[in-house]
Design a protein that fits this description.
Helix content is 46%, strand content 25%. With 305 residues, the chain is α+β, with helices and mostly antiparallel strands.
C-alpha cells in the first residue's frame, strides 16, 4: 500500500495546503513565507493511505508549530528545536535510569515545555476540515481551502529524456572536477587560460567557458586556504546513524560566520565543545571549517545569514 503525505497550515484566515515542494524548501531554508513573518503557526502533517491512487483513509495526523522569522523562514528555528528535542529527551531518559529516592523534576518539566512549544493535538473539527479537503467534500459552512504560497519559483518539469541526459553529463562533470582537484594554483591559472582559448576557437563555447570559471573558483579556494583571508564558516553537524552505521541522517546543523580561517577554527572548536553532549553510540558530532566559496555546497542549501 502506498501513502501520501499532506501538509496544512491553520492560518488566521483559514486552512491552507502546503505543497511538498514548499515544505521541503522551508525545511532546507531555500523557501520562505513572508506572509507569516514573525508569527507562530499551527501546522499538521497528515499521512493518507492510498488505494488505486485514491485516498482511502487518514492513518496519522501530527500537529506541530512553525516559528517564522522576520523574513518568513523557519530553518533556523527548526535547527534550534531539533537541538532542544535531543537535549530534553536525553536528559529525561538519563533521569529515568538514575535510581534515587529523590526524583528530579527538571528533565520532565523541560521536556513537557518543549512539547508545548513545538507540538499540538488536532481536534475532531481540525481533522474534519482536512478530510473535507482530501475527499473534496463541499459543505456550505466550510470555507474553501487555499494553497499556501512560498517565494521560491516553481521549477519546470524535467522530462525522462532530460533526466537521462543530466545523469550522463554528471559522470563527465565528476571527471572534470577530479582532474582539477589535484592541480596547484599555478597549474589552475594555466588550465583556465587554455580553456578560454579553446572556447574562443569554438565560437565562445559555453562548456569550455564554464570549465574555465570552475578552474578560477578552485584556484581562489586554494588561495583562501593559503592566506586564511576572507569569509569563513565554522559548522557542526549532528549525524544520527543507522544500526549498520553505513548511512546517516543529519539531525541538526549549526554554523557561525567568521572573518578569517583562524577565527573559524576557534569557533569550530568552541561549537564542538558546546555540542559534544549530543554525541552517542548512534550519533556523531562533526566539525567543519570552509570558506564562503565552498559554503553553499557544505551547507547543502542552508541559509548563511
Amino acid at each position: 500500500m502506498t501513502v501520501s503525505i499532506r501538509f496544512y497550515i491553520f492560518a488566521d484566515d483559514g486552512l491552507q495546503r502546503i505543497s511538498q515542494r514548499v515544505m521541503e524548501g522551508l525545511v532546507h531554508g531555500s523557501d520562505a513565507m513572508p506572509q507569516f513573518a514573525g508569527t507562530k503557526q499551527k501546522v499538521a502533517n497528515v499521512i493518507v493511505d492510498l488505494e488505486e491512487g485514491k485516498p482511502a483513509r487518514i492513518t496519522r495526523a501530527d500537529g506541530s508549530f512553525l516559528h517564522f522569522d522576520a523574513a518568513g523562514k523557519v530553518h533556523e528555528s527548526l535547527i534550534n528545536s531539533g537541538f532542544e528535542a535531543m537535549d530534553t529527551f536525553d536528559a529525561l531518559e538519563r533521569s529515568k535510569r538514575i535510581k534515587s529516592k529523590v526524583v528530579a523534576l527538571s528533565p520532565k518539566l523541560n521536556r513537557e515545555k518543549w512539547e508545548r512549544d513545538n507540538r499540538w493535538t488536532l481536534s475532531k473539527q481540525d481533522l474534519d476540515l482536512i478530510s473535507d479537503d482530501i475527499w473534496k467534500r463541499n459543505r456550505a459552512a466550510t470555507p474553501t481551502v487555499q494553497q499556501a504560497k512560498g517565494v521560491a519559483p516553481k521549477p519546470p518539469p524535467v522530462t525522462f529524456e532530460a533526466k537521462e541526459a543530466i545523469r550522463e553529463i554528471q559522470t563527465h562533470i565528476c571527471g572534470i572536477d577530479s582532474k582539477m582537484e589535484f592541480l596547484t594554483e599555478p597549474a589552475l591559472k594555466g588550465f583556465a587560460f587554455e580553456a578560454r582559448r579553446l572556447a574562443k576557437d569554438d565560437l565562445d563555447n559555453a562548456v569550455w567557458l564554464g570549465i574555465a570559471e570552475a578552474a578560477d573558483r578552485r584556484r581562489e579556494i586554494l588561495a583562501r586556504y593559503r592566506t586564511g583571508s576572507g569569509v569563513w564558516y565554522a559548522s557542526i553537524d549532528v549525524i544520527r546513524w543507522d544500526a549498520s552505521r553505513r548511512t546517516g541522517r543529519t539531525d541538526s546543523f549549526v554554523h557561525e560566520r567568521c572573518n578569517s580561517k583562524k577565527k573559524a577554527e576557534e569557533a569550530a572548536r568552541r561549537l564542538l565543545a558546546e555540542n559534544a553532549k549530543y554525541f552517542s553510540a548512534e550519533s556523531s558530532v562533526e566539525a567543519r571549517v570552509v570558506c564562503d566559496l565552498e559554503w553553499a555546497d557544505a551547507a547543502s542549501g542552508d541559509d548563511d545569514e
